[in-house]
Amino acid sequence: MQAAPKIAPFMPPRRILMGPGPSDVYPEVLLAQSRPTVGHLDPLFVAMMDELKSLLQYAFQTQNEMTLAVSAPGSAGMETCFVNLVEPGEKVVVCRNGVFGERMRQNVERCGGVAVVVDFPWGAPVDPDVVEGVLKLNPDAKFLAFVHAETSTGALSDAKTLCALAREHGCLSIVDAVTSLGGVELRVDEWGIDAIYSGSQKCLSCVPGLSPVSFSPRAVEKLKSRKTQVQSWFLDQTLVMGYWSGGGKRAYHHTAPVNALYALHESLRLLAEEGLENAWARHQNMHQLLKAGLEKLGLGFVVDEAYRLPQLNAVYIPEGVDDAAVRSSLLGRYNLEIGAGLGDLAGKAWRIGLMGYGARAENVALCLRALEEALA
Ligand SMILES: *Cc1c(COP(=O)(O)O)cnc(C)c1O
Questions:
Q1: Among residues 145, 182, 217, 291, which one has the fewest Cβ atoms lying within 10 Å of its Cβ?
Q2: What range(s) does the Aminotransferase class V domain occupy (predicted)?
Q3: pLDDT at 247 over 80
């Protein structure tokens, strides 16, 4: 008999999360998650799922019937879009201006697709003129994939123009909105986005582990006319929709993460209560406040002002400053987490998140005070 380990309950401290995600979770969301678990086919739960779907449609600004939350983090939302839509041999133009564009490329290749990669410098947005040229050179391309808000650098790309280009060239658009949803303007129907995925733990300020996804009728048509079977059973949307589709006919596919879905329901409800446009404005206002303070401290931004994400502020680490020491001092003294640089920016930049519930004046003030002290 193996001895039972004696382990105390895990009691995490209350950190202030100002990194690239997870973000500070709304207290109401943590409460919602602790409510009693019910069966995932319980009529009350099914009614909650219907509300959740309409809240997701509001957040995405879409009427898309195929709108749901994948029961896994943002990466699974990414994979959901690629495995359902891209068939072997199909060409996908993939824009790469940071870590997540590169992951899109890997997804395309794992689906047996042909990725035509268009590179942009780290910190720059995707340039629609360059993309247009590539689409013209590749008339057989079926998809255009790009990241709306590149969390690795803090750059915002022009999703509206890129999706219009995709349509003009007969492509479906696949858009990563993990960091953009709830933080900056995003209009799925108006901009003609075909497949989009997000994450619960960035500007929605929900607990991590869920990925909102939406497919346009054109994307659904592509899915239904596939010649090959979707290679992932779990992520196959034609099967998942048997559970998420409205009405009383929900069929078991997998056990929904019941309590996590309560949390998402609550975070989206809070977003709807605030109003999407107010939430976008709040992120911008908090960014301006943070920016003024960071500039006073002499910290320079990685991204040009015109393309800067309000919710992800990448700033260069000053010469001679110990990156890890500063971040661990913020965590130790202030319970404050900021993000390290990723990929090309590792060791060179910090990423300060102002996401969802975290985009508040007191967080900005604390972060500036803590950084000033750590740099002194
Ligand atoms: C965080 C993030 C992801 C991945 O989401 P996970 O929930 O960590 O799997 C994908 N794309 C972007 C732009 C992100 O910021």
A1: 217
A2: 37-341
A3: no
Candidates 326, 307, 90, 355; CA nearest to 203 is 355
| Cβ–Cβ < 8 Å for 128, 162 | yes
For residue 240, pLDDT beyond 80: yes
Listed in sequence order, the residues at least 6 apart from 342 whose beta carbon sits closer than 8 Å to its beta carbon are 20, 98, 99, 152, 351
Query: What's the rounded Cα separation, in Å, for the pair 70 and 82?
Result: 14
SS3 content of the chain, % helix, strand, coil (to 5): 45, 15, 40
Report the atom number in ligand 1 closest to the C-alpha of 177.
13
The residue whose two tokens read 């001895």 is 3
- Among residues 144, 79, 155, the alpha carbon closest in space to that of 342 is found at 155
- The confidence score (pLDDT) of residue 11 equals 97
Ligand 1 pocket test: pick from 25, 150, 179 the residue with the most ligand atoms within 8 Å of its Cβ: 179
The upper half-sphere exposure of residue 325, i.e. CA atoms within 13 Å in the direction of its Cβ, equals: 7
Query: Cα–Cα distances in Å, from 119 out to 207, 316, 336?
Result: 33, 22, 34
The structure's pTM equals 0.97
Residues with CB under 6 A from ligand 1: 21, 73-75, 78, 100, 147, 151, 176, 178-179, 199
Q: Quote the mean pLDDT of the chain.
A: 97
Name the residue of 78, 156, 178 to mutate for ligand 1: max ligand atoms within 8 A of Cβ. Answer: 178
